[in-house]
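Loading example: each entry is read as two labelled lines plus one structure line.
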Amino acid sequence: MDLQCIGKSILRTDAYDKVTGKAQFVADIKLPRMLYARILRAEYAHAKILSIDTSEAEKMPGVMKVVTAQGCDILFGACIKDQPPLATDKVRHAGEGVAAVIAETERQAEEATKKIKVNYEPLPYVIDPLEAIAEGAPIIHERNHEYFRVPGFPPVKGTNIFHHYKLRKGDIEKGFKEAEITVEENFYYPLLSHVQMEPHGCISYWDSPESVRIIASTQAPFIVREIVAQMFHIPMANIKVEALYLGGGFGGKSDVVIEPMCAYISRFVPGYPVKLILTRKEAFTSSLVGRGMRGKIKVGAKKDGKLVAIEASLYYADGAYGDTGCNVVTASGFVATGPYEYEHCKIDCYGVYTNTPPVGAYRGYGHPEAQFMSERIMNILAEKLGMSQQELMRKNFLCDGKVNAIGQIIRPGNGNLYKCLDEVEQALYEVPKPQEDENFVYGRGLAAFMKTPMMIPHASSGAILRMCEDGSFNISISGIEMGQGCQTVLSQIAAETLKVPLEKIHISKHVDTQHSPYEWQTVGSITTYRAGNAIIQACEKAIQKMLETVAAIYHRHIGDLKYEGEFITSKSDLNLRFETKKLAQAYLSPDGHGVGEQIVTGGSYLIRNVQFPHPETGQGNCAGTWTFACEGAEVKINKHTGDVDITHLAVAIDLGRTLNPSLARIQMIGGMMMGYGATLTEELIFDDRGKIKNANLNQYKIPKLSQMPEKFTVKFVETPDEAGPFGARCIAEHPVIGIPPAVLNAIKDATGVDLFEIPVKAKVLLEKMGGKK
Amino acid sequence: MKTMQLTVNGKAHTVHYDDKTMLIDILRDKLDLTGTKNGCGHGACGACTVIMNGEAVRSCIIKAAKAEGKEILTIEGICEGNKLHPIQEAFIQAGAIQCGFCTAGYIMTLHALFTKSPDATDEEIKKVLEKHLCRCTGYETIWEGAKLARRMMKEKITL
């Protein structure tokens, strides 16, 4: 295939908007008669609300309305309806919204929140998921088992467990009997904040009791529409959810976050747009957080390194509400094995209510937590078996004909882990490791992983194509451009399929649920894959329509015609060269009549045959597509301080086909650096009252430029995907996944110290290094 | 409310403010210059960086009163019509952009640096970039973009 656009490092189509400051984000929007909201936040992690007195606040200057959810019986959620728009009978995490003030200015609203008097009865609280499931733990949702939920999310009555995903393959007892060597360890992956540079924002405006317009910082405008429709029993068609450019998402703006609350409070001031922009502190305490896993893993192998059995339990501190975290829990179970075949698996993943902000999607969606364990345990097992980790990995990699934990047979079209490992191995080991010196000790480590886009079986993407009279194309999709570059890559896909120059393609910049095609949500790294296929379908339909019209005009068989982009030609008549742009709005024939119709087409794509997991075995065709990759790290550790310096990060990913090499590279590097932060510096810390202590960017430390390793290696393996557009696979979240285990394996290589928790603390490492000497 | 004058992107403005008004509020709310972003409100992320009398400053922590009589330059003021500034071009060419929320801050910081020191060393560039946060790119292309911008400005390369 001779490709013009695919595979080229096309510059970003949104670059001009962004370097000039013209790109619009929610906070930039001002509407006539706009009001501003501020939220009174709970100071307690867990407390009964005895009373709320808003009378003083109502008298404050500029105040239009003070809203509480006292007496409100709305509970929302897509899978588990357990969350009110503002706290009702009690608060379940510090930072939860208790009351809202709507005023003429943001500052007036803020001042008035200080006048609201809330009478609380503090309750015991719990932050750690293991403590939350212990006997006598405070119960966070007394009605846990009564909430409406879709099948597949079984709660355990009378406990804080709101979801238990279990996976059973083979016979675990038999498996461990067959095993000649077993290893077992406990792991901890703390709660993290996404730290998108753009804090969450929402503008909500009821123009009639049955109709609302919402402009939100969201990855999921159609989920917002669904939830808002359910909350207020209004037709979805009346709801207009708009999404603009998004200043980073990373999952923390998927599903719903602040939108239900904004829709709820703005309903009290019909006719006025109400704007709420979270402060950075609120983005930490009162949006979504990620991860928060305590886990235990035990694996058994034969002496020759063949893996036979795995038993794992993963407990997630999913926070005050379970809806946004429940599928993360399940997804982690799918990949708890890592990318290896085990005949016998027993995996239990628990979503546990804790008095922390709700966990939601966070780049990787359960895959980083689970494979932090699997990739560390491979390292430990290899040592015990007396073989290299790479040898153990190669012996057990999922590949053609192997069966993964959920029972899918892996096909060559799923990708090639061996090639990925070869690339990373070469990058890490091409030069000898520096010798330990007076101050430093050096190490190298590896990890492999797999990732699937977790989704509902009928999650689909749509595309609408409209041809303009000059031969350019408007293509609407509802994938959100949040930095990943989907607008650019989807333009490339459209240009390639339509055989027109890239400049002729205009992909919609904003999404609006009343005018844009349906898209489940921009999550799971799947926009290029799913919306890309929807675009290809829309383009192919348009081409077909053009060919049919030209065939009618010239009374020819369609098979005689050839679509060449800007022209349609005939195979038998070299003089026939028809300008396709003449077809855009039906064709005006030389004798003055119209032929054909507008070139307007739609495409939609859904990965076929995806299922919910079986309720008993947890198995099934639950994963629509897989991506395999390996990562590696080199570290330099200060022997006197325990400080870890990551000097090299490497990734080799089987992305099927590289659609845009520079965009793919930046996505890999950004992801690896996010993994770097999780490994060395990031964690949400709770004080002795259960409040987040480091809810600011000085104390919650995301990586800075100076922390960039001396070297990045980014390699692309290209085993075409069977269904992806031009063979491409999902890749966006992925590079974050393998970094923590690769770095910890490198630390082990350097120091002999096995670590099981992140972030790595120099003091702890130093202490353990001392102990080893 | 007090009243003051300041010059923004070459144009004189009279604005009202009080003790709690920050420079960013003047720019975004009163003058609708929304290219300057508020990422943290406490001077930690750099997204709100603008140039005040030649110095790169964090507009979210500069009290409005401090801007009285000053010359402010924002991202909206560095193009000539539709012609991009070399730093903007360099960021596009180097692929130094993802979500775009931090971008203006970086560009303004580099604008201040290269205007004062066209020959800024790598270390000097790193020093100013270190005060900014980007969650998307992992910094590699921002670093490349900054170096390209230095070369383009110095050699007067236009695209």
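Chain B has two domains: 2-76, 86-154.
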